[in-house]
Amino acid sequence: LIAKGQAEHSVVTTCAYCGVGCSFRAEMKGEEVVRMVPNKDGHANHGHSCVKGRFAIGYATHKDRILKPMIRAKISDPWREVSWEEAIGHAASEFKRIQARYGRDSIGGITSSRCTNEETYLVQKLVRAAFGNNNVDTCARVCHSPTGYGLKQTLGESAGTQDFDSVMQADVIMVIGANPTDGHPVFGSQMKRRLRQGARLIVVDPRRIDIVRTPHVRADHHLKLRPGTNVALVTALAHVIVTEGLVDEAFVRERCEADSFAKWRAFVAEGRHSPEATESVTGVPAATVRAAARLYATGGNGAIYYGLGVTEHSQGSTTVMGIANLAMATGNIGREGVGVNPLRGQNNVQGSCDMGSFPHEFPGYRHVSDDAVRASFEHAWGVPLQNEPGLRIPNMFEAALDGDFKGLYIEGEDIAQSDPNTQHVTASLTSMECVVVQDLFLNETAKFAHVFLPGSSFLEKDGTFTNAERRISRVREVMRPRNSDGKRGYADWEITQLLSNAMGYRMDYAHPSEIMDEIARLTPTFHGVSFERIDRLGSIQWPCNEAAPDGTPTMHVHEFVRGKGRFMLTEYVPTAEKVNAKFPLILTTGRILSQYNVGAQTRRTENSRWHSEDRLEIHPQDAEDRGVAEGDWVGIESRAGQTVLRATISERMQPGVVYTTFHFPFSGANVITTDNSDWATNCPEYKVTAVQITRVTQP
Ligand code: SF4
Q1: What is the Cα–Cα distance from 674 to 688, expressed in whole angstroms?
Q2: What is the pLDDT of residues 76-128, one digit of tens each?
């Protein structure tokens, strides 16, 4: 992909990896990229970048790209290359056959946070209007769905409250279950700049992540909790704030519901929630919890940043609400330098949620049972729509195993590698009669597909991504969508449109800007958004409408989106995933800097030189107890399954806890994760799996 020599022209676009959403200038020679240069005018990155956005783009022209549609009758058959017409026609006729035989609700679709807003919008429209049901979900289900739920309940909007630059006004930064230097490197660097200027730092994480101790940065407090005890810890912090008189009474009186606050205050004040009473649960010394709570409540502007270490738990939504409670109780919300900020993993997690990719919500987080909202979409789309929520991803798997769900359209998501309990996922896929995978590569999920539609990379399409700070940025076509015959292929939105037309529901968009115009017409928080305005302003943070024509960097300034802030009770319920003599260690998972999620892209780039395998991090004591030395192969067994990895012995870990990444299919991290999930959203509990480790010979 990377051509040598002088660039002839450049195109400004947005990185397709993490939720920072860095702006780049793709310097081009003909149709080849010479280099990716971070854009000094980029509002999210100000000219900075990381090793993924700058160097890991070679996957776009990798030899593994599939450029010709393929079909097969059975998953045991070889693939047969066919024309686009035949592939789309086959997928549509199979979906129609399945619905005729098994009913309207027997098929569904999954969108991806890797695709543009316009593409995810079209998938949910395809499902609701062409399939005639609400069986649409997004990969945000398995990462930040608890953020959507928890922040909506407390603050009234399913999004972070601040822009990234706000961190430069923070006096105390609390990082909970996030690893910004690996997961969100450009923002992690900005956070470190603020810390070097003197901001104080509290880290809540079972593992000693980099930001706890890096050059010129030392966390004031590292609350090294046991995985699965976030709720107990957050409630203990609240206990200290309430019982030591650290509540911002004026803020709460003016901005929050009196009733819910009174109930919450009485609840957290109970002695059973004190740091001393919960020390044996969380493993964090009570004095450390007290010191951290005092610092957050009294240290000036307190800003909370959190990640998947909060959401991917059986009580993920409860912890999100507990974090919002802390911010409201201390008045740390509604101005620069404070707030509740989910660090979104993928480039367009925020956007895929905003676009109505959940089975219960239309674009703009409006419930499908809302008659007025549904009527507006029925009027615009010209079809009757269902008023009951459809199936979430795990419900689709269950329904498939029950024989009720037979067809699935998957755009840009490798559920056979990324979702928990791989055996369960693959059994579900195997039981379906038509699985359509639209992707760049023959990924793990494609092994169970009957139709493969070649998707397009971010370099091959126009559209928008929305980053973790609600910033909508343009993605621009740098090269033509690839095709096997050298002619122009299709961007993903065009493929969805073809499928919809073949299903009998007409779509005739000529360009993604027309899709965004429709989104803006139908979504109050997007009323002012258009490609023209984004191009003029550089980027826009929603809400962008009549009240905020240039967008909204900080939310909830004068009042919360829901009016008064609502405190929610956060009762700690231990996870069902227990350690015992057979499975005495807890496995937790995460990412590293150079690779990205399931690695479908970064594994096919030079980044694999820096990290070519997933490893199991284990504390020296646990390693010694098992006779494991650095680099040894170890077997990892859980209640769900088993796999084999090489070990890295690390003081970062606490005794009893092991850690791995999930970037390589061979590692099988999700073979061992379980079906446990968040009580409110079904977000999988990736962060807590009871395991046993044994030394093995090389597999
Ligand atoms: Fe891309 Fe995130 Fe790196 Fe920026 S920080 S270059 S958005 S991966």
Answers
A1: 9
A2: 999 999 999 999 999 999 999 999 999 999 999 999 988 999 999 999 999 99
- What is the 3-state composition of the chain as percent helix, strand, coil, each rounded to the nearest 5? 35, 20, 45
What b-and-e string marks burial along 256-268, b requiring 16 or more CB atoms within 10 Å of the CB?
bbeebbeebbebb
What percent of the chain is predicted at pLDDT more than 90?
80
- From ligand 1's centre to the CA of 57, what distance in Å? 12
Tell me the DSSP string of 538-598: S-EESP-BTTBTT--SS-SSSSBTTBSB----------S----SSS-EEEEEE--SSS-TT
Q: Whose CA is nearest to atom 2 of ligand 1?
A: 18
Main-chain phi, psi angles of 14, to 5 degrees: -125, 140
Mutation probe of ligand 1 site: the residue of 184, 466, 469, 597 with most atoms within 8 A of C-beta: 184
pLDDT at 203 over 90: yes
Distance 411 CA to ligand 1 centre (A): 22
Q: Where are the alpha helices (DSSP H) in 103-166?
A: 117-125, 145-154
CB of 115 closer than 6 angstroms to any ligand 1 atom: no
Task: List, for residues 658-672, the tens digit of each pLDDT value.
Answer: 999 876 666 666 778
User: What distance in Å separates the CA atoms of residue 452 and residue 439, rounded to the nearest whole number?
Assistant: 8
Question: From ligand 1's centre to the CA of 24, what distance in Å?
Answer: 10
3-state secondary structure at position 33: strand
Q: Is the per-residue pLDDT at 3 higher than 60?
A: no
Alpha helices, DSSP H, located in 343-450 = 349-354, 371-381, 393-402, 415-418, 422-430
> Ligand 1, atom 3: nearest CA belongs to which residue?
50
57 lines ligand 1 (CB under 6 A): no
pLDDT at 350 over 80: yes
Mean pLDDT of 633-652: 93
